[in-house]
Structure formats: structure tokens, C-alpha cells
């Protein structure tokens, strides 16, 4: 990939980091007239270690959980200055800072109707602190705080339904995307910023370190999550499902076997069956199956 | 123009005169009247600001942080639990050198829950890197907000300022206040021109990760700036006097009948009005007593305190906050001000009173003077009710 003027190379992300790719695609799709507020997390740490920064747009980090509120203040200031119409405001963070500790600030931002795009980079655990379980960690995942053992097959809860929680705020645009489908992500970001009001995009971003797969497997792993139905790609406009990526579903085992975090499940058909049910429900709910 | 006005209304009026672009707040007693008024002023079109109604104090502080980083003058107000809830952001704002101005309507801390006045809330945030100024009356509360913006936005400072005013006593108290005219406000407080801001025309990154190679210097810089701010406060208060015809000495401390005193009470905030009255009464009886009022608690004016009290034999520090398990907060500073010095009081006794809104009366003050003897006391509570201190309640 060529160097990007908006998200420059030389940052310290791990090899094969899905979040670094996705963050770059997001800022490139939004363009130079963008201000970003970033929660604490991997992206913040690897992109802005003083005295260097990867960002070619105005960028601010304050705390773990307040990017949505900081962005609200930025947007309010831009309205006051009469500059809002020409500048996109993005708030972004990982799954923990979005679905757990930052959920209140995000809900406030959505409910108040700010003209802000919120992007959640979902790598399904607290990777920056060493792979601890978050509200977006999938069912049965082995993390450092939801380990599998004689009495546990990993994380006991399914993913918190963040897109639906955001939808329930009555906001004009909600979408799921994946680092495995870059053009789709770019298109969704462009569509989102063309809509006035609060927008939410959740991007599935593999983490080779936390998911325990080879660094060159980022794209295939991301794609398999979508192709099994475990990470459905859809978009809602004004509460109506207007787009979905249709698939010829593959068995979830094909996805699970690519990653160490699911290794404990491979000889456990009962648990795999439960995960297959999650995928089947997604396929039904969003009508993902490609009609032949 | 002089107006008979409630403290909160007066604060809202002066904030309007300061013309912030972003205001954000979350309701908490006794701060509410201030932000209700501001919301109405915005609704009426009398104040061209964005009023952001947030879901928590954490977000109120975060919204003004974002607004300030975008180059706009901002305002928020809170009290008690609200200040504690925004504590993380309060430290962050100072670390990012953003000139936020906040009113703290001082209120006791839970548990037990109590909405009445003491100064535990703001005092507990003394290490946050904010300038803290405590008003005695509503004239000061109004004036201090103007001075707060001037100081915060001074290019030599670029730090947040908290104006502390006693909840209910000042916020809900009616007083005659000489409200500064807009024309003079404009003269004293020019439009805010930020050094750095979030602007696509000139992209900059704020809030970066500073590793051990860089972190300490950022703290050192704030420490040095705060020390120097004592001088800037004096300088700015003189200019304030010139424009508004007031008579503030330096906004660090106020010396009231201290020159020949053999007993002086040190205190902060509205209780000083009561203490002045007690001092006048005792002086009328020929007793040499006085008051040293601390106006600026952070940065702490050690040199001014030393000069004011170096020849006073006995000093009683009356804190409206407590550092549980240690000397009371202002008392600690008084001890530090004289430690290792040639001159100074023989006795610095520490008293704690007025917690959770218990009235500090003229009798309370007389009692403090009485208990200020040759025997130094540490965090002696005044106005306790013995009937509530039976064996089972004292644990």
C-alpha cells in the first residue's frame, strides 16, 4: 500500500493489525476535512507516541471512555464557529471503550443528535491491556479473563448487540463492516458522512496477537467471520435494513479453527453447535443466504 | 450597575458577558440555578453559545474539553459528586493545558448524602493542576469569573481555573452586586485566541502518549506555571481594579486586622464574612484578633501567608474540609508555610467546622478563639453535638 497523507506509515501497530488498516481506510474515506476524537486503546497508543503522530488530520485523545463526548464538544464548537458544514467529526475507539466503559458517552452523543460519525473498531477484547474479555467478546472465546478450563469453555455471554442498541436511539445510519472487505468499509464511511446526524459503524478488525493467528492471515480470517454468518455485514438507514452482504454460508468450524482463541472448542461439538446456532440466527435475521 | 440579585443569577449574567461558545453541564444541587439561567439565555437568543445537555458530569467536562481544544471559550459548573465524577477529566484538562473555566458550587461529599455546603469537593481536587479561587461573597464570585478567564487564557498560563463559591450560602443568597458592564468586560477580556486548536487547515495531534522520556517535563511545566501564576494573579487583579474600580490587593490572601494581632484565624470562602464580624466584636472589646483569608488555594501563596503571619503568635486554621486521618487541608499548608523559617507563629492549631452545612456562627468563631491556646491542637472539630457522640455512634 502507498503511504497515506492522512494516516502515515511508521506507526507501531503489530504486523497484520486489522485495526490499523481499517482506521486508515476510515480517515481516507472521510478526507482531509475531518477532526477525529479517539478513545484510549491500541489505535491511540500505536499512532501517537510522542513526539510522533501518524495522523494527517486534526486528532485528539483525552481518555478511555469519552471520545463521543469530546467529539460532541468539537461539533458544538464548530457549529458556534460556523464551520460545521465543511468539517466531518469522527469519534472512534475499540470495542471495550465503545460497548463497555464508553457506552454512556456514546449513548449521550447519539441521543443528542450530534452530526458525528462514531466508528467502533471491534477486535473483540481489550487487546491493549493484554486480551481481556469485553462486552463484544464472542461466546466461548478464550481470553485472559475468560479462560477456558475444566469448568469453562471461555466467555459465557454472546456479543452485546451494539448495532441494535445504537439503532434503538433512532439514528439515521448504522452499519457493520469488516477489515476483510475494504471497499465495502470505504463505501459505508462515505455514505455515513454524507448523512447529517449521529452515525455508527462497527468494523470487525482481526488482531493476530489476541486471536492467535498468523500475521499474514488477517484478511482471510476477517472474511471467514463474514462468510460463516458470525459477523454479518449490514446497514440500516433511518431504521430500515437497506443493505446486507449475502453469503453462501460456510460452517463456523472453518472460522474457529483458524484462531488459537477458539482452539479449546475444536474437540467439543456441543459448543461448536451453539456457535453454529448464533451464525444461523444471524443468517435468518438479516436474510444473508445468497439465493441461487 | 448595582443589582440585588441571587448569586447563581449573577454568575449566569457574568458568564453571558464572557461570551463562551460552548457551555455544557449536568444538573446537581446547588449548581442548578446557574446552568438553568444560561440555558434560558441561550433559548432567548441573548447568548450565542451552544448549550450541550449531557448525560453526566464526565461528559460535561469532556464536552468543554473538546470545545476548548477546537479553539472556543467554554464554561461548565458543578458541585460535590459531580466534580468527583468528572475528576478524571478535570486532571486531563489541566494536562492538556486547556483554559477551561468552571464554577464549583461547594457542597459536601457522600456518604452520607448531603446537599449542603462545605469545601470538601474542590479541596479534594487540589492536585489536579487547576487554579482554585474561593469567593467570600457574590461580588467576588462575579469578579473572579472574569479574572479566571483572563488568567486561564493568558499565553503564559494556559491552565484551567475553578472559581469556588459556597453552595446555597452564596449560590442561593441574595446580595447587592455591582454587575460589570459589557463594554468594560470586552475591554478587560478580549476574544480568546488559542495557541493551538483542532483545525483541518493546520492539522495537529493532541493528547499523545508520553513515555518515561517525556512525561515528567509536562508535570514540571504545570508546576512552574502555577507557581508563576501567583504573580500573574496579582498583575491581572490590578488591571481589573483599574477597569472596574474595585480594590483587590492581589487575590492571593486578604489580611483583616492582622497587623498587631496576637490571635488570627485562617479560613477560606463565605465563612470569612462571619469571622470578620466576630473580629470586629472582639476588637471592640480590646482583643487583638484578626483574620487571614486565603483566596487562592492553588497555587498556594506561601510567601504571602508567611509575610502576613510571621509575627503573629497564635494562628487557628479553620477548615471546612477534612483530610481524614491527617491534618486538615489548609492547616497542612500553613504548617508548610512556616516550617524551617526563622519567624512564625508559636502555635498553629487546626480546627474543622461547617461540614455538611452545619452553621458556623459568631459563637463558633468565639469558641475557636477561646480554644486557640498555648497548647496546639490538630483537626479539632467545632460545633459537634455531644448527644450524637455516644459510644455506638463514635466507631
What best-fitting shape of chain A do the alpha-carbon axes yield?
A: globular
Q: Show unreliable segments of chain B.
A: none
CATH superfamily of chain A: Thiamin diphosphate (ThDP)-binding fold, Pyr/PP domains
Q: What's the β-strand tally of chain B? A: 16
CATH fold label of chain A: Rossmann fold
Q: Calculate the terminal CA-CA distance of chain B, rounded to whole Å.
A: 53 Å
CATH superfamily of the largest domain in chain B: Thiamin diphosphate (ThDP)-binding fold, Pyr/PP domains
Unreliable segments of chain A (pLDDT under 50, ≥5 consecutive)? none
Element pattern of chain A in H and E? HEHEHEHHEEEHEHEHHEEHH
Radius of gyration of chain A: 18 Å
Tell me the radius of gyration of chain B. 21 Å
Which strand-content bin applies to the residues of chain B?
15-25%
What fraction strand of chain A? 15-25%
Query: For this entry, what is the oligomeric state of its chains?
Result: heterodimer
Biggest protein-protein contact in the assembly: A-B, 44 and 42 residues
Describe this structure in words.
The complex is a heterodimer of chains A (292) and B (395). In chain A, strands 2-1-3-4-8-7-9-10 form an 8-stranded mixed β-sheet, sandwiched between helices. With 292 residues, chain A is an alpha/beta fold. Chain A has one domain (18-285): Rossmann fold, CATH 3.40.50. Chain A is 36% helix and 16% strand. The longest helix of chain A is centred in the last third of the chain and has 17 residues, at 269-285. Chain B is of the alpha/beta class and 395 residues long. Chain B is built from 13 helices and 16 strands. Chain B has helices at 7-18, 32-43, 57-69, 80-85, 87-95, 120-124, 138-153, 182-188, 215-244, 271-284, 302-309, 329-338, 362-371; strands at 2-6, 22-25, 50-53, 74-78, 101-106, 131-134, 161-166, 174-178, 205-206, 253-256, 263-267, 289-294, 296-298, 314-319, 347-352, 380-381. In chain B, strand 6, helix 7 (138-153) and strand 7 form a beta-alpha-beta unit. In chain B, helix 1 (7-18) packs across helix 2 (32-43), helix 3 (57-69) packs parallel to helix 5 and helix 10 crosses helix 13. The longest helix of chain B has 30 residues, at 215-244. The radius of gyration of chain B is 21 Å and the shape is globular. The model of chain B has no long low-confidence stretch (mean pLDDT 97). The chains are: A alpha/beta (292), B alpha/beta (395). Chains A and B meet through strand 1, strand 2, helix 3 and helix 5 of A and strand 3, helix 3, helix 5 and strand 9 of B. Strand 2 (59-61) of chain A pairs parallel with strand 9 of chain B.
Amino acid at each position: 500500500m502507498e503511504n497515506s497523507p492522512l494516516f502515515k506509515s511508521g506507526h507501531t501497530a503489530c504486523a497484520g493489525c486489522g485495526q490499523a488498516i481499517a482506521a486508515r481506510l476510515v480517515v481516507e474515506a472521510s478526507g482531509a476535512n475531518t477532526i477525529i476524537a479517539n478513545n484510549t486503546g491500541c489505535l491511540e497508543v500505536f499512532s501517537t507516541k510522542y513526539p510522533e503522530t501518524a495522523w494527517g488530520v486534526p486528532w485528539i485523545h483525552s481518555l478511555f471512555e469519552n471520545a463521543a463526548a469530546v467529539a460532541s464538544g468539537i461539533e458544538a464548537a464548530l457549529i458556534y464557529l460556523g464551520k460545521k458544514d465543511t468539517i466531518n467529526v469522527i469519534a472512534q475507539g475499540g470495542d471495550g471503550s465503545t460497548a463497555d466503559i464508553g457506552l454512556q458517552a456514546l449513548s449521550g452523543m447519539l441521543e443528542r443528535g450530534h452530526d458525528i460519525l462514531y466508528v467502533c473498531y471491534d477486535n473483540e477484547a481489550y487487546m491493549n491491556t493484554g486480551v481481556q474479555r469485553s462486552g463484544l467478546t464472542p461466546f466461548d472465546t478464550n481470553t485472559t479473563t475468560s479462560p477456558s478450563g475444566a469448568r469453562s469453555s471461555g466467555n459465557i455471554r454472546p456479543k452485546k448487540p451494539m448495532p441494535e442498541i445504537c439503532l434503538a436511539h433512532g439514528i439515521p445510519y448504522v452499519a457493520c463492516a469488516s477489515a476483510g472487505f475494504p471497499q465495502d468499509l470505504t463505501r459505508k464511511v462515505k455514505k455515513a458522512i454524507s448523512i447529517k446526524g449521529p452515525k455508527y459503524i462497527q468494523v470487525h478488525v482481526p488482531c493476530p496477537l489476541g486471536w492467535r493467528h498468523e500475521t499474514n492471515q488477517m484478511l482471510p480470517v476477517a472474511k471467514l467471520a463474514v462468510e460463516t454468518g458470525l459477523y454479518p455485514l449490514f446497514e440500516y438507514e433511518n431504521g430500515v435494513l437497506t443493505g446486507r452482504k449475502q453469503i453462501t454460508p460456510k460452517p463456523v468450524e472453518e472460522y474457529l479453527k483458524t484462531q488459537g482463541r477458539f482452539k479449546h472448542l475444536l474437540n467439543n461439538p456441543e459448543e461448536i453447535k451453539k456457535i453454529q446456532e448464533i451464525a444461523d440466527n444471524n443468517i435468518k435475521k438479516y436474510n444473508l443466504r445468497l439465493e441461487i | 450597575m448595582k443589582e440585588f440579585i441571587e448569586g447563581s443569577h449573577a454568575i449566569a449574567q457574568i458568564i453571558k458577558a464572557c461570551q463562551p461558545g460552548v457551555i455544557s453541564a449536568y444538573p446537581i444541587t446547588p449548581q442548578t440555578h446557574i446552568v438553568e439561567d444560561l440555558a434560558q439565555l441561550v433559548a432567548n437568543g441573548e447568548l450565542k453559545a451552544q448549550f450541550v445537555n449531557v448525560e453526566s458530569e464526565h461528559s460535561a467536562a469532556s464536552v468543554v474539553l473538546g470545545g476548548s481544544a477546537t479553539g472556543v471559550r467554554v464554561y461548565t459548573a458543578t458541585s460535590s459528586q459531580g466534580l468527583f465524577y468528572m475528576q478524571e477529566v478535570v486532571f486531563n484538562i489541566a494536562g492538556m493545558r486547556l483554559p477551561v473555566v468552571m464554577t464549583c458550587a461547594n457542597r459536601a461529599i457522600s456518604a452520607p448524602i448531603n446537599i449542603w455546603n462545605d469545601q470538601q469537593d474542590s479541596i479534594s481536587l487540589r492536585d489536579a493542576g487547576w487554579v482554585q479561587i474561593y469567593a467570600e461573597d457574590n461580588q467576588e464570585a462575579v469578579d473572579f469569573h472574569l479574572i479566571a478567564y483572563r488568567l486561564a487564557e493568558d499565553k503564559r498560563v494556559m491552565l484551567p481555573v475553578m472559581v469556588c463559591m459556597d453552595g446555597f450560602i452564596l449560590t442561593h443568597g441574595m446580595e447587592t452586586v455591582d454587575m460589570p458592564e459589557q463594554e468594560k468586560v470586552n475591554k478587560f477580556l478580549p476574544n480568546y485566541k488559542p495557541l493551538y486548536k483542532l483545525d483541518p487547515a493546520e492539522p495537529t495531534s493532541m493528547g499523545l502518549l508520553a513515555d518515561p522520556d517525556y512525561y515528567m517535563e509536562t508535570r514540571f511545566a504545570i508546576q512552574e506555571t502555577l507557581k508563576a501564576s501567583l504573580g500573574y494573579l496579582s498583575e491581572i487583579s490590578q488591571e481589573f481594579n483599574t477597569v472596574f474600580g474595585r480594590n483587590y490587593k492581589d487575590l492571593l490572601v486578604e489580611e483583616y486586622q492582622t497587623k498587631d494581632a496576637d490571635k488570627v484565624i485562617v479560613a477560606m470562602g463565605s465563612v470569612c464574612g462571619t469571622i470578620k464580624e466576630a473580629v470586629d466584636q472582639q476588637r471592640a472589646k480590646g482583643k487583638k484578633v484578626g483574620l487571614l483569608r486565603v483566596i487562592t488555594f492553588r497555587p498556594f501563596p506561601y510567601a504571602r501567608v508567611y509575610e502576613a503571619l510571621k509575627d503573629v503568635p497564635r494562628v487557628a486554621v479553620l477548615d471546612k474540609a477534612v483530610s481524614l486521618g491527617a491534618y486538615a487541608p489548609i492547616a497542612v499548608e500553613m504548617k508548610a508555610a512556616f516550617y524551617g523559617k526563622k519567624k512564625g507563629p508559636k502555635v498553629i492549631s487546626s480546627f474543622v467546622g461547617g461540614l455538611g452545612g452545619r452553621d458556623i456562627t459568631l459563637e463558633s468563631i468565639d469558641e475557636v478563639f477561646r480554644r486557640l491556646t498555648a497548647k496546639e491542637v490538630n483537626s479539632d472539630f467545632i460545633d459537634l453535638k455531644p448527644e450524637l457522640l455516644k459510644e455506638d455512634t463514635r466507631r
